[in-house]
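Q: A reviewer asked whether we had any structural model of the full assembly, not just the individual parts. We don't, so I'm hoping you can provide one. Inputs are below.
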Amino acid sequence: MPTNRQILLDNRPQGEASTSNFKLVSTETPALQDGQVLVRHHYLSLDPYMRGRMNESKSYAQPQPLGEVMIGGTVGEVVESRHPKFSAGDQVVGMGGWQEYSVVDATQPGAVRKVDTTHVPLSHYLGAVGMPGVTAWYGLVKIIDPKAGDTVVVSAAAGAVGSAYGALAKARGCRVVGIAGGKDKCDYVVNELGFDACIDYKEHKDAYSLAKALKQACPNGIDGYFENVGGMVLDAVLLRMNAHGRIAVCGMIAGYDGQPLPLANPALILVNRLKIQGFIVSEHMEVWPEALKELGTLVGTGKLRPRESVAQGIEAAPEAFLGLLKGKNFGKQLVKL
Amino acid sequence: MPTNRQILLDNRPQGEASTSNFKLVSTETPALQDGQVLVRHHYLSLDPYMRGRMNESKSYAQPQPLGEVMIGGTVGEVVESRHPKFSAGDQVVGMGGWQEYSVVDATQPGAVRKVDTTHVPLSHYLGAVGMPGVTAWYGLVKIIDPKAGDTVVVSAAAGAVGSAYGALAKARGCRVVGIAGGKDKCDYVVNELGFDACIDYKEHKDAYSLAKALKQACPNGIDGYFENVGGMVLDAVLLRMNAHGRIAVCGMIAGYDGQPLPLANPALILVNRLKIQGFIVSEHMEVWPEALKELGTLVGTGKLRPRESVAQGIEAAPEAFLGLLKGKNFGKQLVKL
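A: Here is a predicted structure for the entire assembly that you could use as a starting point for your response.
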């Protein structure tokens, strides 16, 4: 049985999360039962939703239990199988958590899924052709539902969700404008991801200043917005939304440390007859096949070439995760195991 | 030509609206052109949306022009007609404005509409079987879309929209809970309108206290909410919304005087995957026939018996309107002309 290094949630953050909330331990992987497979993880995905799970309070999911392996998406390779549909060497995606190996009950639908790496690199199944990509797809296609010529905006544009959103929106004939932190990210969003414009929110001290920049980048106003951050950015976008605009709320990373971030002017929802809808993509499994197919094609044909930030080794995961929460990553944040 | 007393918007409010914003004038009604009808108004409708029109700033409609007759719904009787489809004595509903008579171009679709007062009193075409009723219908049926057993809530429950909402929701098998200001209104909402419960928001000093009362009145949480007021009430309701709840935003009367009222915790939109949608009913004319038919039946069969507050004479309109904004009315606010 191989040794398995794992990261557990040791205690809950008081305000900002820190490395002391986590604990690295070593165990042996247990012997397999019938129907189980042993997966050696190659990559762990780090995602903002994990911060919500670290809190005790009610969020859209159960809190991460203390003393257990942190939840997380993984890609890897089957090393041993007691399930007839899986064999050693199969490349798979699953929710293996922050650890080097996982034992998975392969009889549970969706617990582990084989993937084809002919045209799509394995790691992309955690990003553009995985949960973040489907998240962008759902928000854009099912909530914003843009028509050609619409102007659509996304915050955290350089990230895994933002980059997929850009490619999906361009494929639908939209003007796509990103919001990101720093000149390097904004240059990348425009030059490599093909957005029409990108605004560096760090250059703006308040929502009014940011709204002015949005007016320049979106001369016809904003028809659809995909929200990853909340706070000042949401206030600014609301000032520029067109009548009957749609806002998909996927994340409010700005508020994850506990202090509620008020929305400055909710009357704009009425004034502009907006639709604002929160969602989590795991509640919409019915769209995954259609979304993954489009995303796989975009990646396979080179129309979506997302960047990855890769930390090395399971022990690097906590630091990399905290960096992600502060926007230090550049593209999809992964840990190579 | 009869003398016509009119109320004009004389100047715009700085903060709170006051009677000095209005001006009463007398004119003669002009001679009719072909296609026009002269209507003697019996009732003028006073509605919260008028406050928004008094401001210069962008709202969901053009501002009310200075020096012109205030906009408003009216019911009355044709006294002279130069249109083949109308004759003296016809009872009609229209947007005649704050005046005793109006000259209407009856060739314009929807400008003036004949109504049947056999089972529905004329004044109700300004309330339960008019714009406020259809407003309640649209928010409940098209946005909240409740199923039997859902708990649905409405603020300003004793008003024209709230009373119609209650009857429509009961007809769909919902638990209906109102929020209103003062014990008299709450008693009326429960005893006469047939709501399951009603909470007096004036008994609560903050959103947390009000949310506690909502928890008692809505033991299974809130599935749908119809927003007429904004501010503390919206914050409280958000704390009690169930996952996948729907909020129809029709009014934010609490913020009409200019100061933006922040929303305390927008992250709840994500946590509970809510849909929040603003609307104005005049943009959805396609639903009016279906909605008016159901509302007319509810009134005709006595299932909806809305109360009216009636001020006497056009000169009383400004004072009655300001009272409406402060919640002094009890039921649909009208002016008898």
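A: Points you may want to mention in the reply: The mean pLDDT of chain A is 94. The interface with chain B takes residues 58-60, 230, 234, 243, 249-252, 255, 260-267, 269-280, 283 of chain A (CB under 8 Å).
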